[in-house]
Specification:
The longest helix has 12 residues, at about 40-50. The chain is built from 10 helices and 14 strands. The protein folds into 2 domains: about 5-100 and about 210-280, HAD superfamily/HAD-like (Rossmann fold, 3-Layer(aba) Sandwich); about 105-205, 2-Layer Sandwich (Hypothetical Protein, Haloacid Dehalogenase-like Hydrolase, Chain: A, domain 2), CATH 3.30.1240.10. It is of the alpha/beta class and about 290 residues long. A 6-stranded mixed beta sheet has the order 8-7-6-9-11-10, with helices on one face. α4 links the parallel β7 and β8.
Length: about 290
Amino acid sequence: MNCEKGNRMRYKMLVADIDGTLVRVVPEGQGSRDAPVVPVETLEALREIRRRGVRFLLATGRMWASARRFFEMAEADPPAILYNGAMVYDFARGTTLYRRQVPLATAQKVLRLLREFPEVQPHVYVDDQVYVGRINRITEEYQRKDSIPVREVGDLLQFLEADPVKILIIGERARLEQLAQAIRALPGDPVNFVFSEPTYLEILPPGTSKGKALQFVAETLGIPKEAIVAVGDDLNDLEMIRYAGVGVAMADAPEGLRAEADYVCGTVEEGGLREVIERFLLRENPY
């Protein structure tokens, strides 16, 4: 843990992931029942840093329709980093500032490969809509969890005619690991993919990450990266915590993320995000 770079720094922006960082992850099978909320103590701490002039942004793999309630709940500032960095959206003005897409040829290559993995379920995002070949138990649970509709279109490979923003593949971790190896072995340009949850493998546009999107936001707002604290809980947050002046991993994050972090905080249930706010943003000398 490198603490020196944060010493006596006045931080100007806090960026956090949603699922597993801002709110707890919904257990499989629970769906939208007892939907997660931001802990009251965390909300109070967020309001205090905003009173002190610190921006609070959220960076998520979700699309806006699925993420909006969390932005409103946490009173987050614009813009929103969505689709794991493939889109930056100024929700205050209703304008898209940054958008990247998966080349159609790459998406088709992955969808062909997925025919060899029938037990996993791909979800294709095009123009802020989600499409699947056939709705099954996995998709029904995903719809409940993310509170968004999914359209059934039959053969995804035949249906897809435009560059998608991303492809979310849900399945058992061991099988997704095998799929990841097969994706690495595909001929042609490398496919950009990341695990965003233990059972989520996401195909993203080339060069896309939360870190790249955060860099775009920081440069747009004129905030040096040294003045940013970023917090996440999974490998899709890796580039973001590497970019920030202080990168923080949740205690239950994978070892690959915790090893790269400058600081490891508690879990959501332990008030981890509030801990980060108190340590780095509400103290004059955080160390």
